What we know:
Layout: H1 2-24, E1 26-28, H2 32-35, E2 40-46, H3 51-69, E3 74-80, H4 85-90, E4 95-96, E5 98-103, E6 106-110, H5 116-127, E7 132-134, H6 137-146, E8 150-154, H7 159-171, E9 177-180, E10 196-201, E11 204-207, H8 210-213, H9 216-223, E12 228-230, H10 233-240, E13 245-251, H11 256-275, E14 282-288, H12 291-297, E15 305-310, E16 315-317, H13 326-337, E17 344-345, H14 349-370, H15 372-395, H16 399-432, E18 439-440, H17 445-451
Parallel strand pairs: 1-3, 2-3, 7-9, 8-9, 12-14, 13-14
Antiparallel strand pairs: 2-5, 4-18, 5-6, 8-10, 10-11, 13-15, 15-16, 16-17
Helix pairs in contact: 3-5, 7-9, 14-15, 14-16
Bound molecules: 2-acetamido-2-deoxy-beta-D-glucopyranose (2 copies).
Amino acid sequence: MAEVKASLFCGVVAALLCSTALAFVEDLDETFKDTRVNDIWLVDFYAPWCGYCKKLEPIWFDVGAELKSSGSPVRVGKMDATAYSGMASEFGVRGYPTIKLLKGDLAFSYKGPRTKDDIVEFANRVAGPAVRALPSKQMFEHMMKRHDVLFVYVGADSPLKEKYNDVASELIVYTYFFSASEEALPESVSLSELPTVVVFKDGGHFTYDEYEDGSLSSWVNKERFQGYLQIDGFTLYELGETGKLVAIAVIHEKDPTEQSDRTTPARNRVTVLISSLISRDFQFGHMDGNDYINSLIMGEVAVPSVIILNTSNEQYFLPSEPIETMEQLVQFISGVLNGSAQAYGGDGFIQRIKRVAFDAKSTIMSVFRSSPLLGCFLFGLPLGVISLMCYGICTAESDDGSEDMDALKREGLTDEEEEEEEEERQRAAELEGPAEEEEDVGEKAPEEKKTD
Ligand SMILES: *[C@@H]1O[C@H](CO)[C@@H](O)[C@H](O)[C@H]1NC(C)=O
Ligand SMILES: *[C@@H]1O[C@H](CO)[C@@H](O)[C@H](O)[C@H]1NC(C)=O
């Protein structure tokens, strides 16, 4: 009897614990399709075997807790996409984990860094109205302080406003959109024509010009970054979508002498540059250390130095001599713009071969560096076995022997190719995908299952 009571008690406690956890993150099943319609949902589509999903789990719980405690209308859930694969593919889930905000008929994918603050910010931004009204000067100033880049529609109802609303409801995944009357803007801002779309950033503002800037959505995509950024692999990937050239100062951020001597003045000077017309074609920033750039260009850049990347064709430009003055920087930039600067890299066939070889080499190097013994074992043992076999085959004089060797060679070759292909795929994922990795549904699944 006592035992029954005890287990009953345990059951109740477990149920209680479960229900508090559920209150933050709800486990979703096939009924979700019908029950979701009246609410806004933030859903983590995961696979039980996926390592990145496990890493996300505690963060996801915090996201749920934070949204709940802040009184957000967004409900947080998670769905085992392997158990409900039909529904998952209906929502366009192709890798794990996939984070989506579902709002009526719309599904917004989250592609940013998987941290609590970033995800909560995303949920709040996307769950709210696509265009937020700024009714007063105070409100406008408040928002200017909070956001580095501010898109504002100014004017009465118009076809442009409709277009703006459409663009906003799509690009709200990246940035905020506001609307204001002219009276809500600071006095220093004078607009020659209304209605118009203005972006406030880098201490200034400029307006959208339908004839020069192309479609509103491509303009917003181009201008949604500050002119000067701290750049890492993830931002570089995002910047690639703007179609601008990316000029990066490669520096050691932690080095205090460099910080005071070089970057600060360089930064200030660059900021001045940005306000000039060049910012239409360029995105500026700095990157800490040269590791990422080195692996990107498969070479070695000095620190400090400047590199300009053309993300649309993977070409890059390096100054012929170290840049120390503003004139040199301007000259370097104009050389790139007028086509006289030497372009390296590219996305041609030879570059791709080079990339595969480079990745294979750096994988082998990293294995040796992290554990030389394992490296010897992994690469040395097969080599030893193969040479022994070759030796045996060569010394045994028979026609069959040479055929065997050919077969062996062929086999060896195909294996290598497969390996390289896999690495290329990984590389491509690293380059093309966001810094936070996503696991492919297909190929990797069985592998992951085994390790767990
Ligand atoms: C960057 O690449 C694009 C696409 O190939 C090309 O049209 C453009 O001219 C390139 N820009 C520079 C400065 O080389
Ligand atoms: C391109 O710009 C560089 C740097 O300003 C200049 O030295 C060079 O003469 C220019 N070339 C052409 C073809 O305009």
